[in-house]
Design brief:
The chain is mainly beta. It has one domain. It has one helix and eleven strands, in the order βββββββββαββ. The strands form two sheets. Strands 1, 2, 3, 4, 5, 6, 8, 9 and 11 form a nine-stranded antiparallel sheet that branches. A hairpin with a 4-residue loop joins β2 and β3. The protein is elongated, with a radius of gyration of 17 Å.
Length: about 120
């Protein structure tokens, strides 16, 4: 998976290759036949950022809070979802250097993100 991270003023864009395994549970409340609102919890495990430009970064497993809004189309068996995830990662290793807990806890990586997802049911 390729992720794009913006870094203000230094570099416009850096592309990292990321490895992550996700576990997610979202409970939805159906407002009507087309709209559902949901909230949930997820866990990101084995989070790693691999880069050709600098040392690889290994991050600790992290829990995240998820908010979701989903619209189901009437004519086709598909839905469109807008999802927001709130997560903070703790750096455990940069290259071959282990990071101490004191330093890592004061320098967390913000992983908050939004996504627009298209679900096609078949």
């Amino acid at each position: 998976m390729v992720r794009t991270i913006s870094i203000p003023q230094t570099l416009i864009m850096v592309i990292f290759l990321s490895t992550v395994y996700l576990s997610t549970v979202i409970l939805y409340y159906k407002l009507n036949n087309h709209v559902k609102l949901g909230a949930g919890y997820g866990v990101d495990t084995s989070v790693e950022l691999e880069s050709d430009f600098s040392d690889d970064v290994k991050l600790d497993n992290a829990g995240k809070f998820i908010l979701s809004g989903m619209y189901t189309f009437e004519d086709i068996s598909a839905s469109l979802e807008l999802r927001y995830s709130s997560v903070e990662y703790t750096v455990s290793k940069i290259g071959s250097i282990n990071i101490s807990n004191d330093i890592a806890n004061h320098n967390k990586v913000d992983g908050n993100h939004s996504a627009l997802l298209f679900h096609w049911n078949f």
